[in-house]
Amino acid sequence: MTKATDTIEIRRPDDWHLHVRDGRAMQDVIVHTAAQFARAIIMPNLKPPVVSAQDAIAYRQRILAALPKEGVASQFQPLMTLYLTDNTPADEVARAKEAGVIGFKLYPAGATTNSDAGVTDIRRCDAVLAQMEKLDVPLLVHGEVTHSEIDVFDREAIFIEKILEPLRQRHPGLRIVFEHITTKQAVEYVRDADTQRFAKIAATVTPQHLLYNRNSIFSGGLRTHYYCLPVLKREEHRQAIVNIVASGNSRFFLGTDSAPHPKGAKESACGCAGCYTAWHAMSLYAEVFEQAGALDKLEGFASIYGPEFYGLPLNQGTLKLRRQTIQIPAEFPFGDEVVVPLRAGETTQWALVE
Ligand code: NCD
Ligand code: ZN
Fold it and tell me: Is the pTM of the predicted complex or chain greater than 0.85?
């Protein structure tokens, strides 16, 4: 990376965890991602979810058709995932791999937005997981238990102990990405996980979990645009996540989890989980790394460790940011509605150089 005082130039980054939805709303948000990222892993939690190789091929076509016809954004590549269900047939794994699907996403049933079709008991998926292990197809996990009696702030830590560790013991060859980690327990688990006896494990990290703690959800009133799942945690957890990415540990890489919802669905009596960060993602991450005195570690996190984990080539182009205070709009078009970005109406300190 070259760092002049007021510019950052890094290899073109990728987003390893992204929601773009579908239809006209997708068209409005995909351009924000494609302006910064060469590739993104597209989450399969549509309604109904993307469950077969065929579904993934069709969804990829719709995304490609929604891209601008020229410029760097026209080169954007969506990387597809399938939604694991109790009924996923084991032979879907080979079909998925053949279709270029990059992994399967585990949503414990009821864990988050559009997860009703999720897995009720991971042991029901053992045959599929064995096939993924054999064909080296990664499992991307939403790492939270869902029992209503478990405190919402403890769900990730308990998932590690009750689900993730036993899963790795049963399937030692399975490559796993612990998505959007939010706790020091997750940081320590992934950092210290043995990869001699087990296949690789990695974690993605969102901008909101690096920038904010749970006070942000309640500051001066209930702030629904800071509500995502897994929910923001205490400051000590935020610090643990910042410290690990600032250390340049290659098991931790960028996944925005940008998750757009119509403004009305967020600002409601039962507001949806999800923060919209696609428009300013790289600016937010740059802010975190600069505050941590680790701008030299931004490129590994954003552009190198992800492709290395997934066994994909590094991108060729570059991305430039310039130090400049920019106003984050109050909202963006989102199909027939609007979406409110994270930190709407406030500022961010790095501008994209087109
Ligand atoms: C995501 C969404 O809205 O699709 N929401 C979120 O809070 N992150 C689902 C998810 O990734 O959990
Ligand atoms: Zn997500």
Answer: yes
